[in-house]
Hints:
Elements: H1 2-29, E1 41-47, E2 58-61, E3 64-75, E4 78-85, E5 96-101, E6 108-113, E7 125-126, E8 131-132, H2 137-149, H3 153-166, H4 172-190, H5 192-211, H6 213-257, H7 259-278, H8 280-301, H9 317-328
Parallel strand pairs: 1-7, 2-6, 5-8
Antiparallel strand pairs: 1-4, 2-3, 3-4, 5-6
Helix pairs in contact: 2-5, 3-4
Amino acid sequence: MNRNTETRNVFRAGLLGTALIGLVVLATLNIDSLPFLSSHSTYRALFTDSGGLHTGDVVEVAGVDCGSVRHVAIDHAAVAVEFDLGCGVRLGSDTTARIVTATVLGARHLRLQPAGRHTLRPGSTLGLDHTTSPYNLNDALTDLNDTAGNIDTAQLSKAMQVLAGTLQRTPDDLRAAVDGVGRLSATIAERDQQLRDLLEHAGRVTTVLAQRSGQLDTLVVDANTVLGELQSRREAVSTLFGNVSKLAEQLRGLVHDNQAQLGPTLDKVDAVLAVLNKNNANISAAIARLGPYMTELGEAVASGPFFNSYIQNLIPGQLIAPYVDAALGPPAPTIPQGGK
Length: 340
């Protein structure tokens, strides 16, 4: 009996430990969703139209990205947008939300304007009276193209002409207005094909822009990156200029403080430079002739343990030649003793 009880206790402890470990793993995988650990708060906003807003779009507060759109769904006669908000922002009771166009290609952002004395709790909903839907230019152009394409311009021109004929006996002011309307209808009828071509080209342009929106978005983002890098380089150059200016000020101060010592030194340097400039030709000639002289001197010295030298024009040659020959000539022969 005791053994069965111990087995049941071990089995219950194992189940309890397994469930606890599963809960810890589940909480770890969804840590951002835990309200007491997540730094983001979730809110909802109701709009009359989604305006092209999608899940993952940026949530802006005062021009700063502080969150993202989590979900967009239909809520009865409105569109409910659920979004996360971080950056430590707290929304007031009079906060307004707008779906705005972030780029020229039609990318959408959710822009918030916090206001109000009372703080909204996470999970609160901004009603339709606090939200604004955007104006979609592409949809407007498409509707205009469809509407204009369904107009029977010939029938409209006939109707205007009949109206003008009917009101011919009206007062002058009204007749002039009707005549203007008739001329307007005639102009529209004459330019019908051109207007159709214009609207068709506009539709093609919007189609191409919609197809290339991703590439153009990338181009705009890269341009922003390049501009940011240029801005940082400009700041670095400005800092360099400031440091060079400070160095110049320090050098001026150094020269001013040591002017009494530097003045005489610079004067002496100028005197030495003047002497060198004055004897520049002589120094150049001496350097040019020094090479051959050193070559000849090296050859003379390298001939043996001694070398001959000759100083020209010191003593006439005819006077010193016999003495030189006697000194350098061969020795006289030795006569052996007892010889005849």
